[in-house]
């Protein structure tokens, strides 16, 4: 039976040659290391590159090993990183999904707030521009989605000073007018409703007419303008504004633009087509112009009032009214002459009569003339003029002189 | 002995490679540990001062020629730090133990598994102290951040030395040698 001998015992019994080999091996390594370090020290201190050859050899040996080891380490690190990612994938996914939902919600909220801000800015601009018309911002709380009528409900009523037939605007354009006003809400009939009838005028020619909706006629969200003078044909693109006649509408609210003007070219067509400026598909906030024209405003409208009947208005300066059918035109009885008073004592000739007690009044200060003749006119917010509606009116061509007629007389032989 | 020498050479190269390539990936709070000094501490306690000197000198030399930040810095610092650690925590020789016995002092040595991280602590403490002094002499005002980073490095390297000592000692055959020695003594 062979006994197992421990290594230490075996080492003691190893040959002398093997021991010499071991000692030589270790000595060589130690000397090699110490020699390399010494060569590096001396080579660096004395600047001898020949002595640094050992560094170069070691570098050439170690560099590929280091490259390989580094690649292995990088690979391991990548795998570990992926493992870490995979282990956290579900958690990260849930977190990202939750974060994404929050961001989407915030983005929607931001969009909504931005839209509201722009709406409020427009409303504020419009309200600021027409403060004299006592504007009131109202919210649309309901609308009839019919094919024949276009009315909606706003959240302001008589408690807020709203009365019937007040102009309702949005984005600087006429939307409609109020009717069926209750204490807390009002109905608004839009200008595209067939029942709506508003006095308007062509801004460029000042021709007046009546604008009516066409929704119940042909189902289109358009307007038609009737009763225009026969001697003018409006051009497509002309702006139609309120004339301030009739209802308590301020003058100059943009209604729309002339889209089709073929009156007279087609038989029995006595109107022109007007495209409304307001966006009736997106009515959320409107402005009610609680404008009540004063007698002065009516008097100074600067328009032809021959077709209008004057309505007596309460004003500090009474305006004489003429009512058809009153006794004004009947012959009034001649008053009976009263007894002639006795002549007073005449002053002596050459004597200057004393001045009257009444002092001659100073002439009143002449009011400064205004552009609209003194009447209140709607101000389009943002300084929009006629050329700001997406088109430019072409200037009227200068008439060329008519050439003299040719002499076509035939001389008789 | 040849096998042990070859293992030492491999371990030395591995210490350099780990320090040069891996340390940056296992940094904690942006403080990378000194893997090389941790392994040198394991060798110092397990195999003795001679092997420690050989390993630290080689690692310092490789760091010097491959990653020279400043001339002779690593070449000098690694052996010095390792020798200071070895001075306190390396195995005492039979001669020194006999001397202590003759003086009536305690000759019982601390558990090597505890001495290894403590040896690493001394080495890395020297290493970090010299670095901090150097950057202070370079004109950098020291603050609590420098001290904190140095302390984190010390603790981290101690932990690595504590963890590395078990596989390294087993690979170098230290546990087997101790077992054989105990068997020999019992006989």
- Rg from alpha-carbon coordinates of chain A: 50 Å
CATH class annotation of chain B? Mainly Alpha
The count of β-strands of chain A is 12
The major sheet of chain B is characterized as: none
Strand order of the largest sheet of chain A: 1-2-5-4-3-12
Task: Report the helical percentage of chain A.
Answer: 25-40%
Total count of helical runs of at least 4 residues of chain A: 6
Overall pLDDT of chain A: 74
In angstroms, what separates the terminal alpha carbons of chain A? 172 Å
CATH homologous superfamily (4th level) name of the domain at 134-296 in chain A: Rod shape-determining protein MreC, domain 1
Structural class designation of chain A: alpha+beta
Order of helices and strands of chain B: HHHHHHHH
Morphology call of chain A: rod-shaped
Please state the CA-atom Rg of chain B, rounded to the nearest Å: 18 Å
CATH architecture of the domain at 134-296 in chain A: Beta Barrel
Order of helices and strands of chain A: HHHHEEEEEEEHEEEEEH
Class per helix and strand makeup of chain B: mainly alpha
Describe the biggest sheet of chain A? 6 strands, antiparallel, barrel
CATH-derived topology of chain B: Arp2/3 complex 21 kDa subunit ARPC3
Report the uncertain regions of chain B. Answer: none
3D structure, described in words:
- The complex is a heterodimer of chains A (413) and B (187).
- Among the domains of chain A are: 15-87, no CATH class; 89-129; 134-296, Rod shape-determining protein MreC, domain 1 (Thrombin, subunit H, Beta Barrel), CATH 2.40.10.
- Chain A has helices spanning 7-12, 16-46, 53-87, 89-129, 215-218, 295-299; strands spanning 135-143, 151-154, 167-170, 173-179, 186-190, 197-202, 208-213, 223-226, 239-242, 254-260, 271-276, 285-289.
- The longest helix of chain A is centred in the first third of the chain and has 41 residues, at 89-129.
- Chain A has 413 residues and is α+β, with helices and mostly antiparallel strands.
- Chain A is 30% helix and 16% strand.
- Chain B is built from 8 helices and no strands.
- The two termini of chain B are 25 Å apart.
- With 187 residues, chain B is mainly alpha-helical.
- Chain B has a single domain (2-92, 111-186), classed as Arp2/3 complex 21 kDa subunit ARPC3 (Orthogonal Bundle).
- Chain A binds chain B through residues 6-8, 21-22, 25-26, 29-30, 33-34, 36-37, 40-41, 44, 55, 58-59, 62-63, 65-66, 69-70, 73, 77, and chain B through 1-2, 5, 9, 13, 16-17, 20-22, 25, 54, 57-58, 61-62, 64-66, 71-72, 75, 180, 183-184.
